[in-house]
Design goal:
The complex is a heterodimer. A 6-stranded mixed beta sheet of chain A has the order 6-7-8-3-9-10, with helices on both faces. A 4-stranded antiparallel beta sheet of chain A has the order 2-1-4-5. By secondary structure, chain A is α/β, with parallel strands linked by helices. Chain B contains 18 helices and no strands. The chains are: A alpha/beta, B mainly alpha. The complex binds adenosine-5'-diphosphate (ADP) and magnesium ion.
Chain lengths: 278, 449
């Protein structure tokens, strides 16, 4: 992490051809976001490399979603900078983020409930016919392919997503994020509403995408999910970054201690661990 | 296309289902729209019976509601509200409201009258009834409507002032400007060509052209249904069974041709026919000259507006975005949709539609009066809501709103036929408006659970 930060320092403002090999795909530096007097994110620095999964964990209200919304353009940060491929990027709205290859599965799913699966999947990026009208059939066809892979039992392609189950709705949100050839994928609690079978599908999907060289920020409540899928884990508490650790170097207990007590593995005592299991 | 193999059995199920519910499902019709057609039928038959009972013969068979002349007038009177209701759908779908349309209608109608009665003939000294007068007047009216809509839409979308407040102010301001423009005088007579927009026996298509239009519309329906089906087949999607397709085509064509037949059954009033025979040197046959009126010009305008607005709402990005904003504004924003521009455009659109209604109404009156379009907002909102547009946002259809306009106009015209006083008429319209919204809230609340 530190060598990436050092080398990109010099690159900012230079054209991408000069970016050093191994510059992180994403670097969020010293990000600050406040809502009125609430400091939701305070000086957080995280990074992500191509083909890497970084798990982002922390208790409710730790600021995970807010941090990721800064990267997806939903809520531009009040301070700090975001670098993509070592270049300072200005992401002021969701379109900027998508243009940079950043796709997001929002915790709220961000679906228009009154519109069908295809309409949601292509929302803002509709396919058009030669006359400029919506090509609903082409969109439905693409949607059937993508969702069919994620959730073979999904059948209600013509119904407003309002009438779908939580799991089906989540499938639509996931399909939307993976359809547009993202380089950077943000998954905010992607399996919260899914059953075991669909959750397994999503795990497989994450591994596939990772092998394709896509960088993934994965937010999950399920510490086992995170341990199974992540290469590194960044822990947040009360809007601050507790630390980032390599999965291979830590145990689940040590990560739990970071989440709950805000203590790095080196600072955790036997007594603390006993406390955790009480 | 490979993934669709699982759906083929659905399309090969060719036997008509037995239950009525299954039948409706196979036809894939909008049940809400069907319900409205049913309600309309009840209203019509009710007025037919009541007008018979209160008529000179006091029986249920001598009603005057379901007569060609009344239905011709009903169609014509539904035009103004129907045109604006198509725009109101988009406004309400995106969780806004426009209370100013009646005043926009008045101001644009009044201005168009000024153009053709004062500015072109007198101020510019070009004289009355020039061939270009009507189109210039119409263009100025539409531009004014668009500008007013853009101004209000800007305040609402970019200024974040609630639509209710902006358009309530507009209701007063634009109406006030009508009085300012010419001290509240009635402006007439309008340009001869412009008057055709209002419709009358002489400003109608006649029987031959009406039949041709009807047959073209049938061909259009058949072609669209077949083309849609072919395209869905090509992608391997499930399609309606063939028999259902046939039923749909038959129903559509029957409705269109039935409408044309009724409009053609209305013959010119005898005085007008005699005058016409005299002017054209025709010797009237015994019993007088029978000239079929056919579809009135403004009704053709309404049909065109309905088609264009349906296309915009269902087949263009703009329409999709309006619905997405109504369904979930955050999702629309996160999808990269320019929410504010889209909202502003819905107000531009309804401003244009109000101007077109202003042209139709003033042309029909053959004059512009200061009360032009007063209270139109109530009928228009009621039409949209009766037509299935939901105040919770995200739901509504254009054809539904037009049907809603016909329902509203049927109520008004039926009450007029029964000689119900105008204050009572207002009470009925108010009650219907509130009931429709209450009913909608109740139904949607239940289906959400
Ligand atoms: N739109 C918002 N307006 C006000 N406060 C917010 C908003 N979004 C998040 N917050 C606050 O920011 C903090 C972090 O929230 P969030 O990022 O959603 O946490 P997490 O995703 O880790 O559970 C919380 O205290 C939350 O109440
Ligand atoms: Mg969250």
């Amino acid at each position: 992490m530190s060598e990436g930060a050092m080398s990109t320092e010099k690159v900012a403002g230079v054209d991408s051809a000069a970016a050093p090999l191994g510059a992180p795909l994403v670097e969020m530096r010293n990000i600050r976001i406040a809502f009125g007097g609430v400091h939701a994110v305070e000086g957080v620095t995280v990074d992500l490399r191509a083909g890497e999964v970084v798990g982002l964990v922390g208790g409710n209200g730790a600021g995970k979603s807010t941090l990721m919304r800064a990267l997806s353009g939903a809520h531009p940060p009040d301070g700090g900078e975001i670098l993509i491929d070592g270049q300072v990027a200005s992401i002021t709205n969701p379109r900027d983020a998508k243009a940079l290859g950043i796709e997001t599965i929002y915790q709220t799913l961000a679906l228009a409930d009154n519109i069908d699966a295809a309409g949601n999947m292509f929302l803002g990026r509709e396919l058009k016919t030669r006359t400029g009208s919506l090509d609903d059939d082409a969109m439905e066809s693409a949607t059937r392919k993508v969702i069919g892979r994620l959730n073979p039992r999904f059948k209600a392609f013509k119904r407003p997503v309002m009438s779908l189950s939580g799991g089906q709705r989540q499938s639509v949100a996931i399909a939307r994020a993976v359809h547009f050839n993202a380089r950077i994928l943000i998954m905010d609690e992607p399996t919260a509403a899914l059953g075991p079978a669909e959750t397994a599908q999503v795990r497989t999907l994450v591994k596939q995408l990772k092998d394709d060289g896509i960088g993934i920020f994965l937010i999950s409540h399920d510490i086992h999910d995170v341990f199974d899928l992540s290469d590194r884990i960044s822990v947040m508490l009360h809007g601050k970054l507790v630390g980032t650790v390599r999965k291979a170097d830590v145990t689940t207990d040590e990560v739990l201690a970071m989440i709950i007590m805000g203590k790095l593995p080196s600072e955790v005592s036997e007594k603390d661990l006993a406390e955790l299991h009480r | 296309m490979t993934e669709a193999t699982g759906t083929v059995p659905e399309s090969t199920r060719e036997q008509p289902p037995r239950s009525p519910r299954g039948l409706l499902q196979a036809l894939n019709l909008d049940t809400r729209l069907l319900g409205m057609v049913g309600a309309l039928a009840v209203i019509w038959i009710g007025f037919q019976i009541l007008s018979g009972l209160t008529g000179p013969k006091h029986d249920i068979f001598s009603g005057t509601f379901l007569t060609p002349v009344n239905l011709y007038n009903l169609a014509q009177q539904s035009v103004s509200v129907g045109i604006m209701a198509t725009g109101m759908v988009l406004i309400i779908v995106s969780r806004n409201i426009d209370l100013s349309i009646g005043s926009i209608l008045g101001l644009t109608g009044y201005t168009m009258a000024m153009v053709q009665v004062i500015w072109i003939p007198k101020s510019l000294g070009l004289g009355f009834d020039q061939p270009y007068t009507w189109i210039i007047a119409l263009a100025i009216g539409i531009a004014l409507g668009a500008a007013i809509g853009a101004f209000q839409g800007f305040l609402i979308a970019y200024g974040k002032v609630p639509a209710f407040i902006v358009t309530l102010g507009g209701l007063l301001v634009w109406r006030g400007l009508v009085f300012e423009e010419q001290q509240g005088q009635t402006i007439s007579p309008l340009d001869k060509t412009f008057q055709l927009l209002g419709g009358s026996p002489t400003a109608s298509l006649g029987d031959v052209a009406s039949w041709i239009l009807g047959i073209l519309a049938c061909a259009g329906i058949i072609y669209t249904l077949i083309a849609t089906r072919r395209k869905r087949r090509k992608y391997g999607f499930p399609v309606r069974p063939t028999w259902a397709l046939g039923v749909l085509m038959a129903l559509g064509c029957l409705a269109i041709l039935g409408f044309v037949w009724i409009m053609n059954s209305y013959a010119w009033p005898p005085g007008l026919a005699t005058q016409y025979a005299h002017d054209h040197g025709i010797t009237a046959p015994p019993g007088g000259l029978q000239i079929a009126t056919g579809i009135a010009f403004p009704v053709i305008i309404l049909i065109a507006v309905t088609l264009v607005m349906t296309y915009i709402t269902t087949r263009r990005r703009f329409g999709r975005y309006v619905f997405a904003i109504g369904g979930n504004p955050d999702a629309a924003e996160l999808g990269g949709i320019n929410v504010r521009r889209t909202i502003m455009l819905t107000f531009v659109l309804i401003g244009i539609l109000a101007a077109i209604s202003g042209a139709v109404q003033s042309a029909r009156l053959q004059a512009a009066v200061t009360s032009l379009g007063t209270q139109a907002e109530l009928d228009v909102i009621a039409a949209a809501v009766i037509g299935g547009t939901s105040f919770s946002g995200g739901i509504g259809t254009i054809p539904g709103a037009v049907l809603g306009a016909v329902v509203m106009q049927s109520l008004r015209s039926g009450m007029l036929l029964l000689r119900v006083d105008s204050p009572i008429q207002d009470i009925v319209v108010g009650v219907v408006l509130v009931s429709a919204i209450a009913f909608d809230t109740y139904v949607r609340g239940r289906s959400a659970r």
